[in-house]
Amino acid sequence: MKFCLSVAALSFGSVAAFAPSAFTHNTMKAPASSSSLNMALPEGVTPIIIGVAADSGCGKSTFMRRLTNIFGGDVVGPLGGGFGAPGGWETNTLVSDLTTVICLDDYHLNDRNGRKVTGLTALNPLENNFDLMYEQVKALKEGKTVSKPIYNHVNGTLDTPETIEPTPIIIFEGLHPMHDDRVRDLLDFTLYLDISPDVKLNWKIQRDMEERGHSLESIMASIEARKPDFDAYIDPQKKLSDMIIEVLPTNLDKEDKKTLRVRCIQKEGVPDFAPCYLFDSGSTIEWTPSPEKLSSPAPGIKLMSGPEEYFGSKCQVVEMDGNFDNLQELVYIESALSNTKTKFYGELTQAMLALADAPGSNNGTGLMQTLAAFAIRDLYEKKSAQAAKAKKESTTAAAAA
Amino acid sequence: MKFCLSVAALSFGSVAAFAPSAFTHNTMKAPASSSSLNMALPEGVTPIIIGVAADSGCGKSTFMRRLTNIFGGDVVGPLGGGFGAPGGWETNTLVSDLTTVICLDDYHLNDRNGRKVTGLTALNPLENNFDLMYEQVKALKEGKTVSKPIYNHVNGTLDTPETIEPTPIIIFEGLHPMHDDRVRDLLDFTLYLDISPDVKLNWKIQRDMEERGHSLESIMASIEARKPDFDAYIDPQKKLSDMIIEVLPTNLDKEDKKTLRVRCIQKEGVPDFAPCYLFDSGSTIEWTPSPEKLSSPAPGIKLMSGPEEYFGSKCQVVEMDGNFDNLQELVYIESALSNTKTKFYGELTQAMLALADAPGSNNGTGLMQTLAAFAIRDLYEKKSAQAAKAKKESTTAAAAA
């Protein structure tokens, strides 16, 4: 389970490019036993809690960058270790002015040695402390501060807990955000990153073989070893999610193993969430954009939008197959999308351009992650407005009494 | 060649429902030897000439009704015969305030007995007087009156000619409007109604077997007999047309032999003609409309729009497969169409509703014919505006000299 190192390291290292102040924290001497990440929660606002489920190496780190980019503010974590300092791991938590991203690996019940004793993988629910997770998600949702454990991905140890104060948006990302009913019921919005086996293998080959020098055999063996627990405990959460981002091989050319087809499956009937669609609500539309307005490398580009059933639930799907040549031209696709939850026409393209160097910015993974980020921002703003209204009404009622 | 009887009869009989004054003409005693159809051509305007090519029984009559419906004005022809008076055939020409529809069968070189001598079909160019056709199209285009022959479909005779005065829009419809280069060069816009063999057989069965009691064998034999000349002389004109309306069996259900898929193939680069498209210019779009906004009987409804090549020419295609349940809901499809050449949103639906009883009003034949009619109106208006501008400039220049 080296994933969270990679999440934090990538998130931190890359976000740093856009938030220079993060470097200060990186070199800052953090307290030895705990770190306190203080972000004030506005009065009367309780946090909105988002669950993001995915296996390791599924692009969660990039998604977190897209989220924090859209929510704004400087990124002030993770402190210490990670990028360039493998021995100095101190937290998995990423914080910006509005957002706290908590990695659920911190709720592992045993350290790496402990799992050697039980013989179970970290994907097994028995290796995760759902009671504590529930208590802390509940406390944070109520605006309370918690003392959260830290799973040290470098050493595989459980380190001294850190203090987490609630911010307006709290993301719980990891293997099991929707596994436990009690936790799931507290989540305001849930997202599952569903990477098809073919794509996952390609990504792991690229990361672990090309970048880290692992052998193809060891990568295949690792995937194979994880598969039973993944299928049993992680995969079923997608049925329970409000939004599923599916990443599949392209349909445009059966020989092409690199180009991606990405589907954003949006459940109907989720409170405060109106699904995004192309051109016309309720229609099924397959769209090959005008090559004069959008250039794309072989095998081209094709989008789709329409109602579907997903494990018995009514959904609205937006799909993009293929890559952009020029990210600026995304504004043309943006013009065909409705319910993007942007505040002005062009904001979607602007958000993608701000992270143009991030993986997936030239394809549907970047687009769908950015759409998800805007949806989460919109949910937060609706919830804040409702809280402000409720507070005003109760103040008025109290004054009248 | 009983087609033109059917054209005129249907056109007259049905249009009468919307233009009560036409009944007056129907019962009016026309001069025995010739009829004069007087419609003044506005000063400075030369007629716009439209060629419409198609085999018999291909829906030309309905198309003419859609045209005259959109161009407005009372219909004042054909006089005499036709509907309910098979022996009284006197003209094939249909006239409204703006439009004259001339049937090219009137340029047959020989009467029915003459063709028995030559042993040629009326589809053979040798049986048609293209020299006279050219002279008269040219004269009409120059605003001159002509004395046009009449082919009597009932008797198969060539009757005493009738006087035709030019109206602002003149439609030449029949088997060979684009066959002769000289005639074709005079046409401002050309349209080909391309009915696929399967559909044509179905239509002939419906008309000739179910309505007229012919045997299936005789219908098949008649189609078979016409096929070589049709393929040699009629079909090649579609390559030369500005717009082709293709009528094909549905793709939605291979077992369904009645539902139609209709394609409007619009050439790029035709002067004063901007092709119609769905949602976005230059894109290829397949659209299954929201069933909540448009109800349709089995096998459903699907539209398509996009650029294509047609015999080496760049085209923009709009396609509709399937039927409407409720013609009122066409306004939803209209909302997705651009370059319809309507003057207000809803005019397309209104035009379809005005002829709701006409064949094809619940499917793509009606839709594409109506789109073609609006395109022709638009061409006429552009040409009139250009003529008015040119006249004003020459007046100004003359005054200045």
Automatic annotation (TrEMBL), chains A, B:
Task: Report the EC number(s), separated by commas if there are several.
Answer: 2.7.1.19
A Gene Ontology annotation in the biological process aspect, one of them, is:
reductive pentose-phosphate cycle
Q: Name one GO cellular component term.
A: chloroplast
Q: Any idea where the Phosphoribulokinase/uridine kinase domain is?
A: 49-251
Question: Which InterPro entries does this one have?
Answer: PRK (IPR006082), PRK/URK (IPR006083)
Name the reaction it catalyses.
D-ribulose 5-phosphate + ATP = D-ribulose 1,5-bisphosphate + ADP + H(+)
**Hey, what's the signal peptide range on this chain?**
1-17
Pathway in which this enzyme or protein is active: Carbohydrate biosynthesis; Calvin cycle
Which compartments is it annotated to reside in? Plastid, Chloroplast
| Family under the similarity heading | Belongs to the phosphoribulokinase family.
- Protein name, entry field: Phosphoribulokinase, chloroplastic
Natural source organism: Nitzschia inconspicua
